[in-house]
Every structure is written in structure tokens, then in C-alpha cells.
Amino acid sequence: MLILTAVMFIQFKTVKQTDFTSLENMREDELRTGITNFKQKTEETNKRLEEVNAKIAEYEQTIESNTEASEVLAKELEQFNNLLGKNDVKGEGVVITLTDTRNQRIWSEDLRLLVNELKEAGAEAISINDQRIVYDTYIVDISNTHIRINGQEMIVSPYVVKAIGNPTYLESGLSKKQYGYIDTKLAEGKDVIMEGRDIGTYVFPNADVKIYLDAEPEERARRRQKQNEEAGIQSTYEEVLAGIIARDENDKNKEMGALKVAKDAIVVDGTHGTIEENVQKVIDIINKKKQKNNKIKNVEVDASVDQIVFLCFDLI
To answer: Residue 30: helix, strand or coil by DSSP?
Structure first.
């Protein structure tokens, strides 16, 4: 009995040890295989991830390129429409008024020369008596008193020429001594009225009449907000007022051509009254000056932006 038990115990122990070793060996092999498979899958996943990231980057670059291309095309389309006069344009610029006198009249050639001078000075958009001047515009004399633009509109004196662009460049282009458009027309005995921030102080300091047209910022903001509402432009009175005040400060502190009242300028406060009433104030000043001096050559008007919609205007 003892012998049999001992033999059975030895056999059991031997079997159990053999199975355990086999089990350990099997688990180690499986583990190695699993790790190898995991590494392979991880490498495949990483490779796939790199491919996906590269594809995403390619898509993003394509989208960015398409966006840039769209922006360029949109800009070119806007410039083309501006060239054709199909867009309303708004911005800073200059206003030049040419007027027939008793002895001299303004001809179509005078207007064509002015338009060319403004274009060379960098004008982005031009109108004459609210008629847009585009790339194929032609201006011809119809009679001694009328000029026709584009075969449709007939205009008469005074001729108000509005040009949008950098005011400094435009003014400099027109005010070249002896050879500039303004001096040339003055030498011909024609009257010229020019509006701008520094016309009477920097551009034409020897002007016969200088008028500084001003108005309280609050009233200018009210007028501009009304214009915005009529044009469907979203803004608030507070935003418009803050913009006007900031713009005034910027204009007054420019290193060159700053906005200021010339010593011999007549200040006209346009805060109260209608546009027509304020314009009449200016006309009365001009006529009074003419009565005193029959040799008057030109009248200059200094106007801050938005004072009575002088420098920030629309071309339609």
C-alpha cells in the first residue's frame, strides 16, 4: 500500500510538472507572437495614420489654395466692376469744381485733361456732376453751354469733379507749380474751387479765398448715421461718433498736410441749418470777395471729413 501510494504520487508529480512547463512555454510563445502581431499592427496603423495626415494636409492646402484663388478672383472682379462703373464707391479723395466765368468757359477738353491728371495721380474712381467716368467714357462739347458725357447726359457749369484716392497724391498731382493742372487753368483765367484737408495751408497757401468748413462732431455723426441708415449700412450713432473723433485726431496730427485752420481762412460753422443754407454761406463769402477784387482767380475750401459730406462722398 505504501509502495503503491508512493508510485502514484511520483507519477502525479511528474505529470503535473510536465504540464506546467508546457503551459509556461505555450504562454511565452503566444505572448511573443501577440507582441509581434501588435507591433506589426501598430506599425501598419502608424503608417496609415501618416498617410491620412498627409492626405489631410493636402486637402487643407488645396482648400487654402482655392480660397486664395477665390479671393483673388473676387478682388479682380471688384476691380473690373469698378472700372466699368458698376459698383458704388466710397472713400477719401478730393473735389474740384470748375466754373464758367464771364470771360472764360469750361470746355470738354478741360474736363478730359483733369480726368487724365487724376488718373495719373492714382484716382480709383472719378465722377463729373455725379456721372461716373469709366474706361471708355467720352466727353464732348454740345454747345457753348453744354457738355455731353457718354452720349447720354448733358451737364452744365459748375462742373463738380469727385475723385476717390489718396488725397495727398491727388492734390500733389494737381498742384505742381507752373505745370500742374490747377496753375495751368488759373493762368488761363478760369476759376477753380478745390476741397481738401490741407488745401489752404499746404497745397495752395496763397489762395484768394480760404474757407474752413466745420461742424460739431455730434452733428456730423448724426448726419452720417442717417446716411448709413438710408444706405442700409449697419452702424450705431456711438460707433460713428467714435470714428469721426478718431479720424479728426488722426488728421490733425499728420506729419505732413495736417488739418488746421489757415491764418487767413474764414471759418464757417455748419452745425446748424440745412446743407443748402450752409452752402449759401460759402457762396456769399465768395461773392463778397469777388466784389472787392475783380481779379480773383480761385476759391479754396478747407473741409474736414464728414463736416458736410465733403470729403467722404459716394460715386454712383
So the answer is: helix
